[in-house]
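User: For my dataset I need records formatted as: sequence, then structure tokens, nothing else. Please produce one.
Assistant:
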Amino acid sequence: QGVVLSAIMVLLFGGLLFKQGLTNTILLMSISMAMIAIGGTELKKMLCVGLVYAVIGGGVVFAKFMSEGDSKAKGDEIATTEQALTTDKRHGTWQARLDRFFSDVPKYEEEITAKNRQEMYSYMAQANGGVFGVFPGNSRETARLPLAFSDYIFSIIIEDLGFVGGVGLLILYLWLLARAGIIAKKCHRAFPVLLVMGMAVMIVLQALFHMAITTGTFPVSGQPLPLISKGGTSIIVTSIAIGAMLSVSRTAVQNGNRQEVKEELNSLPEELRAENPVQL
């Protein structure tokens, strides 16, 4: 029942996020699938949830493309309203990004235009960084790369510190996830485990999405790099997540004797008495 309710909530919020950004919707669903796996859900249930996500998500995207194509063909008057124009513009942006991502033309042969200059200058920055980088402060592309301080900060990090610096940053994020796993292993109850792992998975997956987009593994989309990209909201949310992780590490990990653990268990509400799923 809990898995079903969680999947429904994810689909609800995913529907709200869909118009604002497809990447955020995929990120939300990826986090939910990771948490379902960490929670010890049976493989059959996980596959069912993933199948539901895929079917509903694919159906929504297909219906969106078909409806907008029909509206253009029929010259629907609604398409002249400001809302429809905004939706059309967003749809055109997605389509253009996907077309560039799946294009057979090598990146070095593409002409730099207003639509692809972000990704092209990002690739130039990474190529200029090489293996060891040009040293911090000597970046060549910072001045002309749009959003170099937020959505494409990883490319500037690679230009400054090189491939070695990029891999080092990736290891730091994965280390954060590993440390969260160590904390979760020491917890007695399921709730602090899911809390600390949920916060860590959210941060690390967002970082991986940013790196994948910047390096061209995923289609272009705006996704900040946690704790590094400029942005007040991102910093606040990430700081809250780290604060929750520190709270769990300070209180829920305290090792006591069996009597203390039993007293702690008896003091918790029934719904919070589940065993630690990572120790099963």
